[in-house]
Amino acid sequence: LNILQINLQRCKAAIFLLQKTVVEHGIDIVCFQEPYSPKGTIIGYPSFWKLFVSADGKSGIFIPNKTITPLQLDILQNSVSISINSSNNSPLILISFYNSPSNFEIYLMNDLIYYSNKNFYNSPTLICGDFNAHHDFWGYNNSDARGDALLDFITSNDLNILNTQPATPPFVTSLTSSFPDLTLTNNPDVLTSTTWNVMDINSNSDHKYILIQVNNTFSFSSFTRFKTKYGNHNKFRKVFSTFNLDLIDDLNTIQNHSDLNSFTNNLISKIFISCQQTYKTKLFHRPTNDTWWTTQLTIYKKELQAIKRRFQRSNDTEIINKYKTIYKKKRAEYKKHIIQAKYKSWQILCENTKNIYGAHYKSTFRTNSYPTILTNIYNNNSQLDEANSILKNLYPDDNIIPTRPLIYSNNTPDPPFTHNELQRLIKTLNSKKAPGIDGIDYIVVKILFSFFSTLILKFFNKCLALNYFPDHFKKGQV
Length: 478
Known about the structure:
A 6-stranded mixed beta sheet has the order 3-4-2-1-14-13. It has a 6-stranded mixed beta sheet with strand order 5-6-7-8-12-9. It has a two-stranded antiparallel ribbon with strand order 10-11. Helix 1 (about 10-25) packs across helix 8 (about 315-350) and helix 12 (about 440-450) crosses helix 13 (about 455-465). Helix content is about 40%, strand content about 15%. The protein is of the alpha+beta class. The radius of gyration is 29 Å and the shape is elongated. The chain has 2 domains: about 1-215, Endonuclease/exonuclease/phosphatase (Deoxyribonuclease I, Chain A, 4-Layer Sandwich), CATH 3.60.10; about 225-365 and about 410-475, no CATH class.
C-alpha cells in the first residue's frame, strides 16, 4: 500500500504535477494539505479520484486507486479520517491533518484529543499531517508551545513517529529547512512494517513528497464483475446447458426451506462458473501515462534535477549560490510550462469533441457527491458492530411500527407464475444496473430465461409454493 504525503502550498502547478507523480510511482492514497482551491473548491485532480476533505478545506485525502472503497469516518475542522477496509486484516485508519502556523496550540490539540477519546477507532491508525510544531525530538533546533503540546500528546497516547532519524527535511527553501511534516501511528506492527522516505524529486512546492509504504498484505474487498454486454452469450448457453438437467432434477426433490436454500446456492454457483468460463472479467488498470504530459516537460524536469544536484554536491559557496539562483529561475519556468501544457491539453479536448455533453462537460460541471458521515451511528467498536449499527438505522425492527393484523377474506393460494408473466417482468429489468455481491447482472438473468425458461419458471414457482424467499437473495454488503 503506497501512501503519498504532501503539502501542496495552494499551488496550481503542484496539484497538476501530483497526477504525474501518482502515475509514475503507483500511489494508492494521497494525504495532502493546503490544496489549490480557488473559491473554496479543490480543482486540478482527475475526476475518478475519490476526495475526502476537512471542514476548513486545508487537508484531505485523495484515493487514486479504484479498487479501494474507503469509509469516511469524521470531518473535523483541521482534519478528515477514513477507514480502509481489508478482507484479511483489521481496517487501516488514515487521518490527514493540517495546523496553520498562525494557530495556537489549542487548535492543534482539539482534533487530536477527539481521535484520542475515540481510541483511534480501535484500529491501526496513520496520522499524516503538517503540524507546524517545533521540537528538537523530530529535528528542529528549538521547541515551541505547539511542539511541547504535540510531544506530550504523542507520549501519553503511546504513538510512534515514523519519520526516520536522522530524517531528510521535508520542507526546504533557499533560506531554511525544517520538519513540519510528521507521520504518526498507534500500532507497533504498522511501525515495523512501514517504510518512510522523503523523495528527492521536484514537487513544485517547498514541501517534498513523503512516500509511506505499508508492507502488510492488504487484500481490498472487491467483487468479480463480468463483461456481459459484449456478447458471447451462445458460449454461456453451451456451458450452462451441462448443468441444466441436473438442476431441474434437484429442483423437483425440494421439500422444505432448507432444501430451497441449498438449491439456490447451487444454482448461483453454477451460473457463476458458467460466467467465469464465458465472459471476461473487469479489471482495474492503473493509468500508465498522462495525456497532457509532453516530452518537453520531461526534458525540463531532468534539467531541473541536474541543476539541483550541482549545488547539492558542491562545497563551494560561490557555486552553490550561483546554481541556487539558476534553480529558482528554472523552477518557475517549469511551473509555467506545466500549467500551459495542462491548459493546452484541455483546449484540444474541448475543440475535438463531437458530443457537447461528453467528458469535458461532465468534468467541468461535475458535483462531488460526498459520502454520508457515520459519526452519529458509529459505536466505536469492531467493524461488525459498526455494520450492525448501520443496518439498524437503515432497517429498524418491524415491531417499532404499530400495525394492525391483516384479515384476508380469500384464503385461496395464488396460482403459479406463467411463462408470459415472467417474460414481461424480466423484460423490464434494467440491464445497466450494477450486480450484487454474486456478480450476476440482469443481462445474465435475461440470457438464462431466454435459453432455460423451464428451469427459471420452476424455481420461481417452487419459491411461491413454499411461501419462502431464499436467503441468498437477502444478502448485501454494508
